[in-house]
Amino acid sequence: MKVKFRHPERVVDVAGPARVGDMLARLDVNPETVLVIHAGELVTKDVVIPDDAEVEVRPVISGGAGAAKCSTCRATAVIEIPRHRAAYCAPHFIDHVRSQVRDAISRHRMLSYNDRILVAVSGGKDSLALWDVLLDMGYRADGMYLGLGIGEYSDRSADIVRAYAEARGATLHTVDLAEEYGYAIPETTRLRNRSSCGVCGLSKRYAFNRIAVDHGYDVMATGHNLDDEAAQLLGNVLRWQTPFMARQSVVLPATDGGMAKKVKPLYRLGEREMAAYCIVQGINYIVEECPMVGGNTVLRFKEALNELERHSPGTKAQFLFGFLDRVRPQHFEGADTDAGALVACTSCGQPTTPSRGGGDAVCAFCRTRVHVLRQIGRRRDAARAAVPEGVDA
Prior knowledge:
Elements: E1 2-5, E2 10-13, E3 18-19, H1 20-26, E4 34-38, E5 41-42, E6 48-49, E7 54-59, E8 79-81, E9 86-88, H2 90-108, E10 116-120, H3 125-136, E11 140-147, H4 151-168, E12 172-176, H5 177-181, H6 196-214, E13 219-221, H7 226-238, H8 242-247, E14 251-252, E15 261-263, H9 271-281, H10 297-311, H11 315-332, E16 343-344, E17 351-352, H12 364-385
Parallel strand pairs: 1-7, 10-11, 10-13, 11-12, 13-15
Antiparallel strand pairs: 1-2, 3-6, 4-5, 4-7, 8-9, 14-15, 16-17
Helix pairs in contact: 2-9, 3-9, 7-10, 7-11
């Protein structure tokens, strides 16, 4: 059989017929990190694939194993979720996803049906799945896409998001980072005190809040899932970054200083579940990782957690939920004192913390933007200086 891998793309021949689980074992692939697709449908580990078939092994950085029959109706399952000791057919899997989102919203009072919600959409599986779930559940949810200027990757992401919004008849706000703020993310690779991923995250948070506040949205919703939050927590614990632990929450309330409320309704669902949701619902999403994400430490934490999850299903959920339900309320509730002392940035007017020296308070985004634009200017000056006199640059 032909086994096609994505990211990076390659095709491997495997002798068949073979069970999906045996095929993955031969290829030394952790089943916790992939979905297997045959004839356009998800298949579980016990399905036998014929020798002349073609299958896709799609990476999702997550986990799965379990029964081959739907735990609800006993029909053939399309996905197994070992931490729940359950498997689901397509319709009941969609019910499972909505149930987990509904539980997250209810537990933390994230949303109401009167709220105007702005969803940050990137073209990836998590944000598009979140938008889809909220729309299907009847919430008033619009989308916001930030163009990062990462070449073909950003172009395809934008096309996917626009196509989804058009298909659903949903409102989409689009902001181009270069047009609006003067720089694209690839131009931020040589900053001394921030990585390009750090600048990207800062830019997203700033633009997201700005659109939410300017357009009168009540809540901002992001597609951070169980894997994202557990990996972030692991990194914070390993380094004992207690200020970051204090701020890690699935709900960040609005502030009088101009920060809109921010929620993470997917925190009870893993990446594998969100990828499966998109496949079952027929939602096109960009499969490849961002080409600039290489070396991101969060990915290494995800890999470590996936190995634990492989041998002890439920580890990620127990780790994250234990922090949210027991550790955070006891040790960190109300510890993020920055939120109570916000002032307006003297450059852009958005909320920031007061200056320690008593001078003008300039937000992290505006400070970083100044550094980036200065760096871009120096590069352009150097490029012009390198052109011989009399040659048109």
